[in-house]
Every structure is written in structure tokens, then in C-alpha cells.
Design brief:
Length: about 525
């Protein structure tokens, strides 16, 4: 399938900008019909009107000098902190703008919702330090930004850290206290991993609500547009140890959509416990997330991530979806040993659904990658009901950007999955799955715990057992077997710890192995 790894910004470069200075930004007087949008209802009406018109791709008028920048040259264009929006006020948050260039070629318009009206923010080359690059010439009047970021004192009261960034298609990512940027969320995914190629809707315009001086929550409206759909979004950002981004969206399809991905998350998994470390890398593991967690009905399911040899897609049916997320459970620095990337600080992203989303499934896409520079993991929810033009779809959810306090069951949780390939043909598989949690640590010495195993067929099981792990106080399950030569291409394995009277003691561990 012609699926490309998703673009990602490397976190191994120096952060842009330092302490913010006083300054001002050029703000135009209110103008144009879109500038009058102040509420989600008004934006939804505008998106519905736009959906009734043919799609018109935005024109950037971008000079070749910006379009052809390489990564380092683009990173050399830096917003001047002294020109930050709200820098010289007593407001708790500030905004910095991001420049167009390289693969960020879709212009984004930014507006401020004030008590006196809606004010567009104008592009001005003087807002940026171009470093070794020449300042662009012949900039059209319609030239915009590639996105923006909000700064807030997350970690100390006297310094405003990066809180949330909106840049590229419908991507956004946020931080809680003590975190470092990793995975991203998106407004919408369309036809991901489909043979016809993926469509990337974009946030074309934003409206940021002017906050109060004592505000602890910040509100952003966003207009989504693509050949297949338009959408109205309101995103409320609440900073904290686990920053929350609450999303309310109303979608208006222009045409039928084969696969609509709601609340998509994108991340990176290069290698870890189930994937051998490259011989030229000293680090034990390299990933922004190590597993997919799904809560559907009363069941919690954990799927360890993998860097597959070929593109893989797995669907997890959910009649009553409570939430799903790409999680970074391993928080030990020694698991990564990277003093710069600090993968143990990367946030987990948990999507908490609001209301009944109906029948559907969570899909996990894993794309092969040979480095850590590209996002190769995607997860989202797909509704069973077909998406048709002339109808609207509404969804509401909250993305929790977590570090130490992770969403999960009160039951035992998978803390590690290790895989060994043995035998002359390396077809014999040995899985060692460790479980932890207060429930398991509290079991009495005489507790009876067994590992319940299930499969989709085509896997010869030779051993499955559970044992107490005295080193951690948890339990360990060991599974040995091999896929049969005439099995299906992919074999799904499931394992869960159960106790006396068959009561569940852990979440469900799930894994897919391929036919040899």
C-alpha cells in the first residue's frame, strides 16, 4: 500500500527561543466575514456553507527560497520572542507564530477574539529572525503562517514553557508539567493505509479567544477543510501535570468517505523490547510510545507496539468505546539512556470519549521505519456507519497528555513484553509478559493465578504459565509456541491473568504474529 511515514519534527535539535521579552505584534482591524466568527455555532454554520461549495486548495504564493529549504535552514527561521502576542500584558499565556517553509506550505490564518471584535493577525517578516537565510521578498498579501504555539508557566511561575503547538495539516501536540514533546494528535484522519492514498485535512484558520488575567483554560476555534470534508472545532486547553485538550467537532462531508479516523494520534516506535536493537546504536530502546491501550465496555486491552517488516493494520472492535490511547508506560531513564531525547519524558495521550460514539473500531496502523525521525504509528476510531455528504457528524472527547499518572485499569497492567525467537529456523517464539499494579502486589502468597490464552487460529501452543515475579511484586506470564506453516497471514494472540473463580486479574495482552 502506498502509505508514507508521517512527517515529524525532530526533538533532537535545540529548542527555538529563550526567555520572552516585551514587545508587540501587528494586529489588523476586524475585516471580512470569517473575522466575525466568535462562537462554535457561527463557525459550524460557516463550515456547513463551505462544504456546499467545491473544494479550493489554498494558494501560498511561497517563494522558492522558502519552499526549497532543508531541515536545518528552516529551523534557522525563528520567531522573535519580543513580538509575542500578549507579551507585554499580565495575561498568563503568550502566542508565538510559526513561519511557512519546507514541507509546511499551507498558509494558516490566525484571529484574536476580543471584547471589541475579531482581529486578524497580519504576517510581517519583521516578526522573524531569518538567521543564515535571506528574508523573503515579494510576499503576497495573503501570505500567512504555518501555525502557532502557546506558552504558559507549566514548570515554574517565572518562565513560560511551550504548552501546545498547532502546525502542519491538522496536527497539534501539548505538554504537561515535566514533559518533553513526543507524539501528536490530529483533528481528523481520512483513508489512512488505504490503497488510494491518505488525505490530510488541514486547519486553515484559527480564532483564539482573548483570555482573562486569571484564566486557567484557553479556547481555540479551528476551521478544518479538505477535498472530502469541512469541520468546525473548538479546542479548550487546560494546563497542568496532565494537560487536557477538550475537543468538540462537527463535520460536514463533501463526498462519501471510505474510512473516517476520529481523534487520531500519531507517534514513533523505532525499536524496543520486541524489536532488536540496531548494532550501531547504544540505546536499549527508542520510542515515543510503547503500546496502544483500548477501553471498550468492561474490557481493557493492551497492544505492545512494534516496528514491523511491512505495513500492518489491526482493528479492535468496540460497541461501547470509553477511550483509547498511545501510551509511554516505561518511565525508566535507563530503558533509553538518551540524555538529549529523554524518551522517558515523552507524554502519553489518552482519548476520553464523551457521549455515545456508536459502533465502530479502533484501528492501529504500524509502518516500517529505519530511523526515529518519522512518525510511523497511527491510532484512531472508525465509525461503522458510512459517511455520506449532506449529513453532519459530531464528536466530543478530551485528550489527556499524561506522564506519571497514566489512565488504565485497577487490574494488573502490562509493564513489559519481551520476545525471543529460537530454534534452527527462528520460528519458535517465546513471549515473556510482565504485569504489575497494586492488585497483583496485594495478592496473598497462596493466591491461584493462571494465564488464560486465546488465539485466532494457526498457532501451535507448547507452553503457557503464570508465576509470581519476586523482583517486582507482580506476576509474569510465559508463552511458547510457533505459527503453523499453513496459518493465515496474521495470527492474533490474547492472554489474561485470571484468579480463583475465573475472575480477571489483569488487562488483556494482545499481539499479532505473522505466518512464516
Amino acid at each position: 500500500m502506498p502509505v508514507r511515514p508521517l512527517p515529524r519534527q525532530s526533538d533532537r535539535k535545540p529548542a527555538v527561543g529563550g526567555r520572552l521579552l516585551a514587545g508587540a505584534l501587528l494586529i489588523l482591524a476586524s475585516a471580512g466575514v470569517q473575522a466575525e466568527i466568535r462562537t462554535f455555532e457561527a463557525l459550524a454554520k460557516h463550515a456547513e456553507t463551505l462544504a456546499g461549495k467545491p473544494y479550493s486548495a489554498p494558494e501560498t504564493g511561497m517563494p522558492p527560497s522558502l519552499r526549497d529549504l532543508d531541515y536545518d535552514a528552516y529551523r534557522d527561521i525563528r520567531f522573535r520572542p519580543a513580538r509575542s502576542i500578549w507579551r507585554d500584558t499580565d495575561l498568563p499565556v503568550e502566542i508565538q507564530l510559526l513561519h511557512l517553509g519546507m514541507y509546511y506550505q499551507t498558509p494558516v490564518a490566525l484571529n484574536l477574539i476580543t471584547s471589541d471584535g475579531v482581529r486578524p493577525v497580519a504576517f510581517d517578516p519583521a516578526l522573524f529572525d531569518y538567521g543564515r537565510n535571506k528574508a523573503p521578498e515579494e510576499i503576497p498579501d495573503s501570505f500567512g503562517f504555518s501555525g502557532f504555539r502557546m506558552h504558559y508557566p507549566l514548570n515554574t511561575p517565572d518562565y513560560k514553557d511551550e504548552l501546545v503547538v498547532f502546525q502542519g495539516a491538522s496536527y497539534f501536540r501539548a505538554l504537561g508539567a515535566g514533559q518533553q514533546f513526543g507524539l501528536s494528535a490530529r483533528g481528523l484522519a481520512i483513508d489512512t493505509a488505504e490503497s488510494g492514498g491518505e488525505e490530510f485535512p488541514v486547519f486553515r484558520e484559527f480564532w483564539v479567544e482573548w483570555p482573562r488575567a486569571d484564566a486557567t483554560r484557553f479556547r481555540v476555534l479551528a476551521l478544518l477543510d479538505s477535498p472530502s470534508v469541512t469541520g468546525a472545532y473548538v479546542i479548550e486547553i487546560t494546563p497542568g501535570d496532565s494537560t487536557r485538550t477538550r475537543v468538540k467537532a462537527k463535520l460536514f462531508p463533501r463526498k462519501p468517505i471510505s474510512k473516517l479516523g476520529i481523534a487520531p494520534l500519531t507517534s514513533m516506535y523505532f525499536y524496543g523490547e520486541t524489536h532488536p536493537r540496531p548494532g550501531n546504536d547504544f540505546r536499549p530502546e527508542v520510542h515515543d510510545s510503547d503500546g496502544l491501550l483500548v477501553h471498550s465496555g468492561d474490557e481493557w486491552l493492551w497492544r505492545p507496539l512494534n516496528n514491523p517488516g511491512k505495513l500492518s493494520a489491526n482493528a479492535f472492535t468496540s460497541q461501547k468505546l470509553n477511550g483509547f490511547g498511545l501510551m509511554q508506560r516505561d518511565r525508566a531513564h535507563d530503558s533509553y539512556a538518551d540524555l538529549e531525547a529523554r524518551y522517558e519524558r515523552r507524554p502519553s495521550a489518552w482519548v476520553e470519549t464523551h457521549g455515545d460514539w456508536g459502533d465502530g473500531y479502533v484501528e492501529l496502523i504500524q509502518i516500517p521505519t529505519k530511523n526515529e525521525m518519522n512518525d510511523n504509528i497511527v491510532a484512531y476510531w472508525v465509525p461503522d456507519e458510512p459517511v455520506k455528504p449532506g449529513e453532519s457528524r459530531s464528536f466530543s472527547y478530551t485528550v489527556h497528555w499524561q506522564r506519571d499518572k497514566l489512565t488504565g485499569p485497577e487490574l494488573g497492567r502490562v509493564t513489559a513484553t519481551r520476545l525471543a525467537r529460537t530454534g534452527d529456523d527462528r520460528r519458535d517464539l517465546k513471549f515473556v509478559v510482565d504485569f504489575g499494579g497494586e492488585m497483583l502486589r496485594g495478592l496473598p502468597p497462596e493466591a491461584v493465578v493462571r494465564a488464560e490464552f486465546g488465539q485466532s487460529g494457526g498457532f501451535t501452543m507448547r507452553e503457557v504459565q503464570a508465576m509470581r515475579n519476586p523482583a517486582t511484586g507482580g506476576w509474569r506470564a510465559v508463552l511458547r509456541g510457533r505459527p503453523e506453516a499453513d496459518a493465515e497471514n496474521a495470527i492474533d494472540l490474547r492472554l489474561q491473568l485470571r484468579g480463583k473463580d475465573n475472575q480477571p486479574l489483569s488487562e488483556v495482552w494482545s499481539y499479532t504474529v505473522n505466518r512464516p
